[in-house]
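Section 3.1 - Work completed
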Amino acid sequence: MKKYRLLINGRNFLIDTDGKPKKYGFYQNIFLEADSPLQAEKLALSKIWHDKELKEVSLNSKKDPPKITLDTFWELDVLEYLGHNIETGRTFYPEKKWWQFWK
């Protein structure tokens, strides 16, 4: 099996951080082993979709679901994989409205 690092991008997550739900996106690194890049992508996306913590904070309705996609992936050699010290936690960012593209 090959080793992969995948950068996942979540968007359109409605989250209440201060009493006012707002839309957020996030990036998250995932390290895993898989037989192919396609299998690695499926495993990583499944891991995010089934994440209990993320499900609990998301307030999205079925009419406005969040979106999770693969942003980038890297195939790692054994030495890179064993020596990585990159955090795998999520980094959230506030999403802008479509008309705020200049900000």
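Second construct:
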Amino acid sequence: MDEPTRIGVIGCGQISGIYFETARRMRNIEIIACADIVPEAVTFRAEMYGIPRRYTPEQLLADPDIEIVLNLTNPQAHAPVSLQILESGKSVYSEKPLATTCADGRRILDLAARMGLRVGCAPDTFLGGGIQTCKKLIEEGAIGTPVAAVAYFMSHGPEAWAFREPRPESPTRQSVTRKPPGYYFQPGVGPMFDMGPYYLTALAVLIGPFQRVTGSARITWPERPLGNPQFRVETPSHVVGVMDHVNGAVSTIITTTDVWPTDLPRIEIYGETGSLSVPDPNTFGGPVRLRRAGESGWTEIPLTHGYTTNSRGLGVADLARALRTGRPHRASGELAYHILEVMEGIHVASRENRHVEITSRFPMPAPLPTGLADGEID
């Protein structure tokens, strides 16, 4: 039980740095190998983080010491790589989204079930102190029964931010770890598939699963000035969704890269007796603000849980703990598939001018215990 679970990483690009950093903090996991189709990226990450085994993807999958493989490839590769990982007899934790289509997502879950393996998937930001505090407030009745929510990701696009490597990171920047220009506007990416998982996962965890969606989506500019020549936009860049939860609450989401800055909140949840301002779901911390009926202003609520700094990879540690103990893991493949079905459903609803029924459900993730020390998971 005390021996760290051995992790292998496939994909040593932009996002991998923070996963390596978090793995250093967590006591129950150890990254022992990394792989990428770009050998220079493997060398860069292995030298930066002292990873002993430098592999091709095929070599990593053949290593019998590895128990979980962390799939940090690009979105279009998530499904084929995750399927290969499962076929090798190892559990998988994937970056979001689980896949770019529900058909591929279902293949992943079905194969895992046949093999007796686990599937985990980002985002795990809902395990951070900010959203865990919000979950505790809702469960304690701070705003009464939720009746509605709004979620906004409003931006003018990746020209300013999408290709920056997350921190903490080495002062040395290497082009081998960066995504190419135009990546953000390929099918399977765009603002909904890239940022929507953070917002929709938070809503699902805080309010409950979705049962029906509709929406509108558009490509505002067919080309974006990300280089010379300009890059074609191949997926909707402004997406609006309306989602009915199973419990009757109605949520609205906008994800866009087509607007200039606004003062809209990230997420607000409206209950029968008050309102809750939820922090940026792309982060782990606060602030969390509460305003009950009849109050003249918002009150900032102290965070009740830890993991308030960037802790991407916390879900991997939770999956590893679940493998050891037999309990369910929190950032589950079923949750990720449910969010994928919602995102795909919003796009289908826009194209076909209708509502789309959401048929999947997921086990509600158990709250994290309060009082966990940094590096612990339970």
